[in-house]
Q: What sequence folds into this?
């Protein structure tokens, strides 16, 4: 082999080595440029990596599609190499002048038709349709609107595109109203201020909360039916016990939700038509109204100051008077039942005065001048009264010099005005009276004064005929409905024991 041939072969080997190194170097530069462009933005890079559409199914069979990469590669210039041409692979380097566009686009791409090419998203299509409709309505070019309002030179401003429905024209003439009323859509009484201000973050006893919420378990049992006497009997006992819960607080009552629609109101309203007995409804509503007013103290003598006095002869006397600082006292100067419930019970007359049932500590007739009598207490006292339950012959008080007393005048005025009176019965009635309560006083409903007669003109003694209104529950003097309850009697007996008062 001649020296010329050896030099020629060595030169071709050097060229091939330089050519391979140039390919590697060009690929490295292209990869670095591509990574730099990707880190700067999300735009597609110059290095195009595509997969032919007709090769996609091969992915399901584990066959990797052919990747076609366009990159900057060296081109032979005057015996050297310069990175100017775009190729797809090493075979393209063998071509004298590879085309950048040809190497970047797959050969099969021009033959593939995209069946989704003409589709656009529905939101954009809707906007385009609205724009076209507005364009048809405006003559001329709708991209800009000429503003002729200012200066000699016409100002061009973009036309507003209807990307939202057109606003309705404002009413020019507003109607006038002669009467505007506020409608209350509440299904329950408006919650008092104390209930709204309760801080639910205050800690409560879990056992107390479970005990109070046991009411909901009994309500669910009643809704499922079953033995009525057993179900309603358990609920009745629970309500009587709840009156004397001494662990109550505002946070506990609100967390238990017993004052909400699903609690006590569900019993006395009986929205689900469960058929609660009438005495259960009355007791549930009385407890609801007391708690709703903020009176959570179960003590029978709440708001009353009790004093025991002893004299020189070591005689003891117990007295009671209203506490002037007690804020929950209710006025007795109203006509009708108010918030009282049939069968509501008190241990003493002063307690009935505290709750707005009867406005006298000792007298049996309460009224106001110009309004007549509003309440009477049926008790003993030597009067010629006759109690038949739904009808009562009730005597006034003795007058002076043939003039009726103040109480008698109140009853005469109520008879003339035809206003009802609240009737309370006392345990001081004769023992043979079946309607007397065993202890204390009991509210037995509203009675109308239908007539009166004079028994003695000298003392102006009148006797009035009272008749119970018919739209009320029966008098609670017997059966499971009787008041006072066992719990009330036990609480009153305990108080008398503390005061060393006989039964």
A:
């Amino acid at each position: 082999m001649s020296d010329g041939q050896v030099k020629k072969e060595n030169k071709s080997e050097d060229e091939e080595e330089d050519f391979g190194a140039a390919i590697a170097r060009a690929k490295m530069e292209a990869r670095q440029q591509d990574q730099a462009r990707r880190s700067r933005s999300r735009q597609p890079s110059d290095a195009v990596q595509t997969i032919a559409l007709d090769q996609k199914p091969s992915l399901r069979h584990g066959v990797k599609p052919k990747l076609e990469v366009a990159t900057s590669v060296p081109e032979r210039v005057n015996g050297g190499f310069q990175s100017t041409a775009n190729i797809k692979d090493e075979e393209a380097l063998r071509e004298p002048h590879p085309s950048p566009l040809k190497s970047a686009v797959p050969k099969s791409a021009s033959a593939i038709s995209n069946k989704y090419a003409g589709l656009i998203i529905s939101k954009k299509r809707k906007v385009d349709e609205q724009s076209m409709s507005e364009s048809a309505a405006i003559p001329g070019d709708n991209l800009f609107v000429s503003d002729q309002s200012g200066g000699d030179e016409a100002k061009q401003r973009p036309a507003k595109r209807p990307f939202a429905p057109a606003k309705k024209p404002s009413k020019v003439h507003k109607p006038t109203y002669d009467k505007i009323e506020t409608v209350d859509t509440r299904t329950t009484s408006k919650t008092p201020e104390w209930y709204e201000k309760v801080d639910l973050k205050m800690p409560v006893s879990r056992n107390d909360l479970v005990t109070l919420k046991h009411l909901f378990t009994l309500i669910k049992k009643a809704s499922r039916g079953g033995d009525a006497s057993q179900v309603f009997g358990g609920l009745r006992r629970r309500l009587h016990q709840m009156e004397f819960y001494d662990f109550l607080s505002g946070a506990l009552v609100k967390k238990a939700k017993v004052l909400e629609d699903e609690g006590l109101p569900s019993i006395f309203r009986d929205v689900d038509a469960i058929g609660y007995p009438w005495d259960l409804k009355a007791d549930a509503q009385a407890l609801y109204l007391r708690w709703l007013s903020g009176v959570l103290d179960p003590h029978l003598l709440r708001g009353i100051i009790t004093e025991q006095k002893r004299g020189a002869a070591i005689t003891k006397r117990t007295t009671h008077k209203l506490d002037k600082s007690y804020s929950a006292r209710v006025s007795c100067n109203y006509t009708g039942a108010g918030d009282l419930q049939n069968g509501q019970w008190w241990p003493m007359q002063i307690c009935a005065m505290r709750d707005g049932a009867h406005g006298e500590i000792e007298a049996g007739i309460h009224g106001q001048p110009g309004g007549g009598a509003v309440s009477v207490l049926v008790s003993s006292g030597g009067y010629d009264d006759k109690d038949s339950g739904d009808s009562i012959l009730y005597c006034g008080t003795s007058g002076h010099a043939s003039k009726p007393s103040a109480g008698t005048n109140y009853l005469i005025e109520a008879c003339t005005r035809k206003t009802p009176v609240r009737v309370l019965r006392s345990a001081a009635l004769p023992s043979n009276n079946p309607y007397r309560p065993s202890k204390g006083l009991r509210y037995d409903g509203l009675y109308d004064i239908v007539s009166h007669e004079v028994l003695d003109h000298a003392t102006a003694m009148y006797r009035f005929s009272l008749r119970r209104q018919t739209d009320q529950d029966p008098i609670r003097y017997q059966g499971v409905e009787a008041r006072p309850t066992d719990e009330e009697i036990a609480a009153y007996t305990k108080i008398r024991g503390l005061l060393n008062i006989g039964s």
User: Anything to note?
Assistant: Residues 44-112, 137-147, 149-154 have pLDDT under 50 and may be disordered. DSSP finds twelve helices and 16 strands in the chain.
